[in-house]
Amino acid sequence: MSARVLIVDARSERSQALEQALREAGFDVVMTIGEQEDLYAAVEQLEPDAVLIDAASPSRDSLEHLGQLGKRYPRPMIMLTSQDSPELTRDAARAGVSAYVVESLMPPLMRSMIDVAIASFEQHNALREELTRTRRSMTERKAVDRAKTLLMERRRLSENNAYQYLRKLAMDRRMNMSELAEELINAADERRR
Amino acid sequence: MMPTPLERRQLTLGMLPLADAAPLVAALHAGFFAGEGLEVTLSIEPSWANIRDRIQLGVLDAAQMLPLMPLAASLGLDGQLTPMLSALTLNRNGNAVTVSRPLFAAMQHQHPGLQPDDPASAGALAEVIAERRASGQALLRFATVYPFSSHRYQLRYWLGSAGIDPDRDLELRVMPPPQMAAQLEAGWLDGYCVGEPWNAMARRQHQGEVAISGHRIWEGAPEKVLGVTRAWHDAHPGTHQALLRALIRTGAWLDDDTEHRRQAARWMIDGGYLDAAPEDVERSLELRDDGIIFSRSVTPWPWRSQTLWYAAQMARWGHLPESESDAAHLIGAVMQCTRPDLCRQATDALGLPMPEGDSKLEGCHEGPWQLEGRDGGTLEMSADRFIDGAIFDPGRLDELLEHYRQLSMLNRPAR
Prior knowledge:
Chain B: InterPro entries: NrtA/CpmA_ABC-bd_dom. Chain A is α/β, with parallel strands linked by helices. Chain A is 65% helix and 12% strand.
């Protein structure tokens, strides 16, 4: 029989990806719930072997309480794993995964479940970072374009010359182009006011 | 005496987004950490479980903790078995039990004239519970914040003072404080015991009514402590002392002037330490006789008798394994993890008088009293009574535990 896992996560795209990854690894995901939902009812009715929860969720403290109520409730991973493999707990914490596990769950199974969760969370984090980076670089490019246009209008420069002017000024002032562009735009806005 | 050198200067301290994290925030912003040569980063943690994990994994150097957390971790009950200790009480008082408006109305119906924060509230609740049982209604549901919390044992003590058995007569849960008031209003919760600003907020928004404030359950109860692992302390004794000195001075500053309390509230709000309405944070940190204290009545002093009282409550409700439940064992564990000797080093360095003893009788004083300090001076103390008028004698812990054992055999199935 495969291990039965409950996922508690406020971000649905992430929990969907985690759910799929766990299924592919042979785990039985019994339910995925948001943290506003009734954790007590979910754990008492579904009797999961493990609960995976976002380490940033304040609802962890409710799971701590459930873990104190009896052997059939999952207990915090740090109680069960740290003695022999502190790095697993540390890696999980770094990835933002927190796990609660029943004592009867076989250690290799628990380890593989946590590995899947770590990989899934890390992938999600990487995607989010990528997205933030893309957004940032688009904003930066827009700023440089606006500053260029400003220079073309004010100083009657060609596009290429405006670009070269910006580049040289940025090098002289040890700023990157987008910072300098922002500064020029802000200064122009100030003057207009 | 030469000050002990600092083993390290850059520290990360954990805290929860609560009004009583004010000493940590004020120590940073008023420069008390910097005054000791410390560069502190405050890490706002989402849960007590996270504080425990990150302390046990060594990610945090020290943290704001509930007074039972060092003991629970040292006994292997909270996370990995990790010897932990605390040498400083950060604050006393500041909790309250808030109940839903319908429940408060039902309590008033049973007990006409019942006021908010009324000593008769537990009796009124007992009558409501009896009536609900007689008419076949569901158990009332109350929440606290963490298994090893002062809130849990204050709530249970208050319930027990009116003969309510929390395990039989109620359903008790743990819930993140920011969710509590909304759950109360939605009817999913009937009451909770929590710190500020979550009682002030519920009251202002008419989501609930204060049934009893924590200081009436146990006046001057230790509420948060500064906790570290014993391994961290052993590796950084000088840094630990510098932290203690900085926080003791911050506590004195906070209790010195109402304006300092307001300034601390502003730092907490503007710095994004606490996501709550400014008026609730300011109200929570007001300097008043029945409010939270950070320095008065020797707040910093980590009385072993007070950790022992909490430990006795754990034993009372079956939250300690049988093997840990005898008096000698508990006293030994508390000696290891509640450390007035380390506090004394810091207060001596600051020239502050502190008590001679490490333990005292708890619950003897209805009003202000005086205690002789070690240097022969006089220490001004506040009341320390319990709601049921009991006196806790740490020297007779074994008798109390035996009494609790007999009560529990009479009353209830374990849960």
